[in-house]
């Protein structure tokens, strides 16, 4: 019998096509059951004795699942226990149309002989084919087709078994379908109902997919984010300039914020700031996104907004703030330039990558993807055990060829607290490349001839073999220098070096080199548990400075040498002068006048306050914050070589090839320069060199982030063990709604927020000129001394953090009473 | 047009017959031959009809496609006609033989039907100035036995009655990019109002009288004929004189009046028939081309 199926289709060109297909109906399609003795071209699939123990169906039966059951409960259907299932062609086609994975799985199940799954081509069976009726939706038609086929089976089996017990059971989760099927005289169950009725197989219930009640389904889903635009719209939008394409970079300090770098030629705007979850719109770091710019009125003028500090404590705000307020959070920008803002309207290319996370119960309402970058690569601070008393610097150049060399195209020195992961194999890094006393080692030396005024007469670079006389720690060396009773050769040469170093340092400082400060903290770790026991700020000894001085000199000499030799492809390091606006905060704080590094250095040295020894350090910490990031660059690609911090016209990294890849490159360049080695093409290609520099800078930055995160983590561990601690601190920054406090003892910063969600906020008056913050009667200025209590807030397991609360000055309603200090918590002691 | 050889004696016989209101096949001067109509005969068109009038067989198919409206009338769709003179109809159409006739027929049909008074062209508009429905009316001559115009016009009216245009709606996004969306239900479609679609009545001047629905022999006796398109209300929408001979004003008037009368009478049973066929729905036994 011939029927025709007619449907209209839209063509790609926009036309409408009426398509007519011939549809042949047959009357010789086998039902696939063993009971049916008609026509046996192929072996029957469905067993006659199809028994499964069930409360609901005590008789042998075949299952007919509808489309939704197959789509959602495929786990159940795949279970070996479920056998003798009739998959209708209608169902199969719909599944195929809607979900390729589910289709594949059901196909696999059908092919498995033991499962006894049978595909019944009901669409081609004369008695089960139905035509779509006027006003009937495609789904309704399919549901009807399923019911008709089920009914046919029921009648057919009854006839074949002469009214025997073999039956069919229709499984559907659709309420309307179920009702209609019942009216039609079918045995029909909901999937859940049926599975739960199976005796002795409770494990199947676990495999049930949770079915949302079909009526709640729609009302429940709230639109959390604006929909992403379809790709075609994005493309046309980018074409006509409405949208901009760029790479999304999440702000690693503030998960509510990100930047899109527009990588298009001739675009005036190359950076778009995105603020708020709605505007970030599910973009993940490094995604290529399409952004829509906001009108100029909505561009950010930092002065008019709530300043949320960009240190980790803005996590504090995360859950505390309401959604709306979140959107208005702004990071602090130190100049008044308006930043273009926008929102993500679509994601052009996802940056797929594995994420790890944890699920905690309903702490966070909507998990949407992690905006933070996962930083793993780290960069090490020198282990204190080896020091080099030879000024000559050192090392046999590490040289890798072929594959191995490729692998080294990035830093991979990793150190998170006392653990370190070396860039080079351990044998090299801690033995062969370390100078040990009385052992001969290959080295790359930089030898200066100096007069007593530490003026360099001659510089010489060479490969060398060194037999070191002694291997000392900084402390040991310091002791020898200080101990007047010791007068052996080593000590004498140490003193000589120290004298020269002092002259060098003096000269450098004269030129305007900065000595900046950052609160470096070292943890004492429990050797068993690796829990931090105590922390202390790093102490710098004279010998540290001595070694540093000669290293700097070596670096400068080498930089000059390789630049002279290879003006196009020398790998150098520069430190750009910060723009004057960066100093605003410092000027406000210290009212110091700064126009050059020298002026800054001088004024820093002079800036001391009676009875406030820590003031100078605080200023230096602030000054450090104003600095630009020092970067590697290729000499052929840049013209400004100046190193601001060291006040040197040229600089590179040469001294630590075992922990910095840049040094290895510099070693190679130097080796070529002194005719000790041959060159290779990549080394001389300034573009390759330049991209290498970019990678180095990027890795370096990531390493710093990881380091900070590690410190933050261990600080938390430390406070976890300590309980509540009262400590003295200084106000480092004053913000609109908070003060940032530096605890010198722990070298940590934290914020004390004055607006609190459960209490009415105290009266806050913020003066950006001071900057001062007046809370009720008390005015906070920068560098004010305060007392705080520090504790670990573990109320949210995912966002454990250090919480600070004000103790002194006492402001009613704001400060907290002094808590019972635990006995071991020492009285605050400041060692500056 | 296909012609038959008619001898002088035959001509005289026919002319005399017509004078006495008795034609070769027994009809009166204003009678049509037996007519059979069936619609929905070609499944892959949007509307189709087949008519046989005596031995004249015509098949009409209507295809609706989305096109751009004409600049002069941005809010209207339009119809296009193509007449295919199949060599089946007569050996003369073989090769390019039927081309001239086809063009002539389609131009005439275009004049008669493609105007807003005949078909509601505004209902074919999808989006003014951008999209409209274009109805391609394809006429296939299967057999020629005179009076092609009348047969074709009736078939076109029936096919337009049968035409079902899929319903579309325009969705517009914020940027103003319009997208045409099709209804998913094949039964959800638009019908055309064919109330005002005219039928063509061709009157042939034979001797001093005129006849409708002339056969080929009668045609051979006629020197001139008048083609009149008439709506169901009897409104004449188009008149065209055909053939080499001349017509005096008085007979033109007479012929027009007769045309109106015949045309009006033609619409009523046609619509009745179409409605009746429609009401049968799927139960109708299709006849098709073998019946």
TrEMBL record, chain A:
MF GO annotations: 3'-5'-RNA exonuclease activity; endonuclease activity; RNA binding
Spans annotated as Disordered: 305-324
Record domain PIN: where: 61-179
Acidic residues bias locations: 311-322
Alphabetized UniProt keyword annotations: Exosome, Nucleus, rRNA processing
Protein's name in the database: DIS3 exosome endoribonuclease and 3'-5' exoribonuclease
Tagged with keyword Zinc: no
BP GO terms, sorted: nuclear mRNA surveillance of mRNA 3'-end processing; rRNA catabolic process; rRNA processing
Gene3D superfamilies per UniProt: 2.40.50.690, 5'-nuclease, Nucleic acid-binding proteins
Signal peptide: none
Cellular component GO terms held in the UniProt record: cytoplasmic exosome (RNase complex); nuclear exosome (RNase complex)
Location, primary (coarse class): nucleus
Source superkingdom: Eukaryota
Protein location: Nucleus
Pfam family membership, one: RNB
RNB domain segment(s): 381-676
Protein family according to the UniProt entry: Belongs to the RNR ribonuclease family.
SMART domains: PINc, RNB
TrEMBL record, chain B:
GO biological process: exonucleolytic trimming to generate mature 3'-end of 5.8S rRNA from tricistronic rRNA transcript (SSU-rRNA, 5.8S rRNA, LSU-rRNA); nuclear mRNA surveillance; nuclear polyadenylation-dependent rRNA catabolic process; rRNA catabolic process; TRAMP-dependent tRNA surveillance pathway; U1 snRNA 3'-end processing; U4 snRNA 3'-end processing; U5 snRNA 3'-end processing
A Pfam entry, by short name: RNase_PH_C
Broad class of the protein's primary localization: cytoplasm
Organism: Cyprinus carpio (Common carp)
Gene Ontology, cellular component aspect: cytoplasmic exosome (RNase complex); nuclear exosome (RNase complex); nucleolus
Localization, UniProt: Cytoplasm; Nucleus, Nucleolus
Keyword entries, A-Z: Acetylation, Cytoplasm, Exosome, Nucleus, RNA-binding, rRNA processing
This protein's name: Exosome component 7
MF GO annotations: mRNA 3'-UTR AU-rich region binding
Stretches assigned to the Exoribonuclease phosphorolytic domain: 32-166, 196-261
SUPFAM superfamilies, per database record: Ribonuclease PH domain 2-like, Ribosomal protein S5 domain 2-like
Description of how the protein assembles with itself and partners: Component of the RNA exosome core complex (Exo-9), composed of EXOSC1, EXOSC2, EXOSC3, EXOSC4, EXOSC5, EXOSC6, EXOSC7, EXOSC8 and EXOSC9; within the complex interacts with EXOSC2 and EXOSC4. The catalytically inactive RNA exosome core complex (Exo-9) associates with the catalytic subunit EXOSC10/RRP6. Exo-9 may associate with DIS3 to form the nucleolar exosome complex, or DIS3L to form the cytoplasmic exosome complex. Exo-9 is formed by a hexameric base ring consisting of the heterodimers EXOSC4-EXOSC9, EXOSC5-EXOSC8 and EXOSC6-EXOSC7, and a cap ring consisting of EXOSC1, EXOSC2 and EXOSC3.
Family that this chain belongs to: Belongs to the RNase PH family.
Gene field: LOC109111969
InterPro entries recorded: ExoRNase_PH_dom1, ExoRNase_PH_dom2, ExoRNase_PH_dom2_sf, Exosome_comp_Rrp42_subfam, PNPase/RNase_PH_dom_sf, Ribosomal_Su5_D2-typ_SF
């Amino acid at each position: 019998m011939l029927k025709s199926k007619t449907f209209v289709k839209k063509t790609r060109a926009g036309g409408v096509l009426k398509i007519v297909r011939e549809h042949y109906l047959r009357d010789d399609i086998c039902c696939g059951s063993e009971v049916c003795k008609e026509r046996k071209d192929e072996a029957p699939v469905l067993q006659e004795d199809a028994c499964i123990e069930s409360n609901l169906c005590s008789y042998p039966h075949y299952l007919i699942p509808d489309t939704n059951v197959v789509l959602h409960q495929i786990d159940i259907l795949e279970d070996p226990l479920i056998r003798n299932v009739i998959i209708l062609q209608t169902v199969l086609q719909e599944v195929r149309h809607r979900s390729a994975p589910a289709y594949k799985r059901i196909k696999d199940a059908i092919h498995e002989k033991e499962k006894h799954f049978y595909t019944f081509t009901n669409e081609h069976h004369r008695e089960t084919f139905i035509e779509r009726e006027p006003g009937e939706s495609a789904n309704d038609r399919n549901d009807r087709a399923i019911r008709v086929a089920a009914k046919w089976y029921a009648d057919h089996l009854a006839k074949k078994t002469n009214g025997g017990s073999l039956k069919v059971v229709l499984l559907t989760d659709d309420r309307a379908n179920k009702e209609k099927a019942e009216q039609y005289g079918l045995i029909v169950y909901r999937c859940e109902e049926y599975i739960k009725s199976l005796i002795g197989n409770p494990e199947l219930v676990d495999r049930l997919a949770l079915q949302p009640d079909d009526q709640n389904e729609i009302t429940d889903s709230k639109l959390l984010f604006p929909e992403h635009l379809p790709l075609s719209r994005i493309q046309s939008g980018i074409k006509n300039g409405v949208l901009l394409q760029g790479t999304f970079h999440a702000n690693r300090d503030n998960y509510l914020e990100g930047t899109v770098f527009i990588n298009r030629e001739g675009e005036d705007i190359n950076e778009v700031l995105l603020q708020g979850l709605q505007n970030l719109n599910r973009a993940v770091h490094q995604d290529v996104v399409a952004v829509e710019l906001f009108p100029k009125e909505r561009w950010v003028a930092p002065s008019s907004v709530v300043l949320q500090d960009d240190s980790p404590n803005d996590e504090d705000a995360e859950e505390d703030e309401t959604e709306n307020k979140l959107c208005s959070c702004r990071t602090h920008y130190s100049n008044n330039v308006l930043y273009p803002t926008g929102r993500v309207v679509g994601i052009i290319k996802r940056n797929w990558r594995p994420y790890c996370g944890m699920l905690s119960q309903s702490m966070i309402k909507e998990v949407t993807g992690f905006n933070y970058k996962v930083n793993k690569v780290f960069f090490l601070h020198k282990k204190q055990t080896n020091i080099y008393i030879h000024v000559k610097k050192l090392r046999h150049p590490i040289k890798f060829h072929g594959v191995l060399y490729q692998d080294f195209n990035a830093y991979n020195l990793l150190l998170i607290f006392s653990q370190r992961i070396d860039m080079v194999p351990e044998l090299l890094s801690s033995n062969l490349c370390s100078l040990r006393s009385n052992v001969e080692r290959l080295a790359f030396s930089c030898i200066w001839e100096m007069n007593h005024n530490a003026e360099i007469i001659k510089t010489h670079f060479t490969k060398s073999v060194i037999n070191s006389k002694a291997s000392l720690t900084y402390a040991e060396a310091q002791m020898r220098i200080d101990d007047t009773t010791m007068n052996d050769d080593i000590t004498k040469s140490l003193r000589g070096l120290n004298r020269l170093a002092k002259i060098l340092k003096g000269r450098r400082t004269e030129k305007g080199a900065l000595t900046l400060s950052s609160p470096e903290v070292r943890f004492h770790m429990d050797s068993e548990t690796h829990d931090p026991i105590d922390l202390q700020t790093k102490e710098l000894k004279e010998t540290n400075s001595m070694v540093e001085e000669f290293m700097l000199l070596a670096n400068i000499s080498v930089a000059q040498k390789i630049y002279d030799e290879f003006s196009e492809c020398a790998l150098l390091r520069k430190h750009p002068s910060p723009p004057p606006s960066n100093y605003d905060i410092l000027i406000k704080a210290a009212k110091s006048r700064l126009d050059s590094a020298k002026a800054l250095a001088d004024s820093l040295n002079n800036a001391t306050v009676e009875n406030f020894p820590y003031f100078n350090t605080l200023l230096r910490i602030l000054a450090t914050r104003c600095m630009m990031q020092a970067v590697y660059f290729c000499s052929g690609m840049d013209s400004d070589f100046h190193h601001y911090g060291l006040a040197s016209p040229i600089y590179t990294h040469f001294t630590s090839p075992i922990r910095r890849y840049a040094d290895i490159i510099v070693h190679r360049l130097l080796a070529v320069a002194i005719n000790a080695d041959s060159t290779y093409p990549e080394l001389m290609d300034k573009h390759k060199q330049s991209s290498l520099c970019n990678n180095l800078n990027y890795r370096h930055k990531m390493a710093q982030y990881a380091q900070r995160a590690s410190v933050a983590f261990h600080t938390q561990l430390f406070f976890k063990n300590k309980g509540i601690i009262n400590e003295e601190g200084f106000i480092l920054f004053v913000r609109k709604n908070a003060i940032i406090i530096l605890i010198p003892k722990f070298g940590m910063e934290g914020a004390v927020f004055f607006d609190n969600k459960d209490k009415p906020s105290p009266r806050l008056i913020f003066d950006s000129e001071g900057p001062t913050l007046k809370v009720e009667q008390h005015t906070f200025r920068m560098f004010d001394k305060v007392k705080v209590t520090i504790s670990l807030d573990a109320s949210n397991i995912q966002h454990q953090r250090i919480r600070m609360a004000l103790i002194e000055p006492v402001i009613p309603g704001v400060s907290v009473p002094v808590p019972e200090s635990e006995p071991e918590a020492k009285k605050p002691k400041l060692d500056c | 047009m296909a012609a038959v050889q008619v001898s002088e004696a035959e001509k005289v016989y026919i002319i005399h017959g017509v004078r006495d209101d008795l034609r070769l096949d027994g009809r009166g001067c204003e009678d049509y031959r037996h007519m059979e109509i069936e619609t929905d005969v070609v499944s892959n068109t949007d509307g189709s009809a087949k008519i046989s009038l005596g031995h004249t067989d015509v098949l009409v198919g209507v295809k609706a496609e989305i096109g751009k409206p004409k600049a002069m009338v941005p809010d209207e769709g339009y119809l296009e006609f193509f007449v295919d003179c199949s060599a089946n109809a007569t050996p003369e159409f073989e090769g390019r033989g039927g081309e001239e006739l086809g063009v002539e027929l389609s131009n005439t049909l275009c004049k008669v039907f493609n105007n807003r008074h005949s078909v509601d062209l505004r209902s074919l508009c999808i989006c003014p100035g951008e999209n409209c429905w274009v109805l391609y009316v394809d006429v296939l001559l299967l057999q020629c036995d005179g009076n092609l115009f009348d047969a074709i016009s009736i078939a076109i009216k029936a096919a337009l009655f049968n035409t079902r245009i899929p319903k579309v709606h325009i969705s517009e996004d914020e940027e103003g990019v319009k997208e045409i969306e099709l209804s998913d239900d094949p039964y959800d479609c638009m019908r055309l109002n064919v109330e005002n679609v005219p039928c063509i009545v061709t009157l042939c001047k034979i001797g001093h009288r005129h006849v409708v629905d002339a056969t080929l022999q009668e045609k051979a006796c006629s020197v001139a004929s008048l083609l009149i398109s008439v709506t169901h209300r009897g409104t004449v929408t188009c008149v065209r004189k055909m053939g080499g001979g001349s017509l005096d004003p008085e007979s033109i008037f007479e012929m027009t009046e007769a045309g109106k009368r015949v045309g009006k009478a033609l619409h009523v049973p046609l619509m009745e028939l179409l409605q009746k066929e429609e009401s049968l729905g799927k139960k109708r036994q299709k006849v098709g081309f073998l019946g």
